[in-house]
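Annotated sample (chain length 204).
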Amino acid sequence: MYVIALTGGIASGKSTVARRLVEHGAVLIDSDVLARRVVEPGTPGLAAIREAFGPEVLRPDGTLDREALGARIFHDDEARRTLNAIVHPAVKELGARLRAEAVAANPAAIIVHDIPLLVESGRADEPFDLVIVTEAPKKTRIARLVDERGLDPVHADARVESQATDEERRAIADVVIDTSGSIAKTMSQVDAVWGRVREEIAAR
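Output written by the structure step:
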């Protein structure tokens, strides 16, 4: 087993890098996907959110109203910490279970944990074999949020500013992939990292 942590700010190109690693044969465990799974109806996570934030953060069908919850936590650090204390441990536990399943199926698996909030969640000290950080200039990321996700520029700027800084992410990085250029340039950087991983595994 070889475990890679993949992180980076919003709209910094993590999904593009993750897709390329999967094409090479990696098993992807996506924390954003897990974060949705751990708050599905009937989960302890959703019950804890309802208890902490009230029934107004649920839709009539019992699912989580992400917009309502987002509005509650966006400018409230204490509320955000409360939510993170519910979601992050559940995501970590589910991710560990999926990793164990992947290794049971293939003991030589190369596993990529896509963890957008690796710095913010305090998980950077976990025993990863490699930490990859995706990076692009702030103006590029804001433009992507506006053009690709339909955010207004003010909201896009606020989303970028609410996360860890590039310096904080670089401090935990083994590899930084610059996604500000062409897709081809990004892919070539990922391919080089994959070659490095294969060499490290062969040398063990």
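Annotation: Residues 2-203 form a domain with the Rossmann fold fold (CATH 3.40.50.300).
Annotation: Strands lie at 2-8, 27-30, 110-114, 130-135, 175-178.
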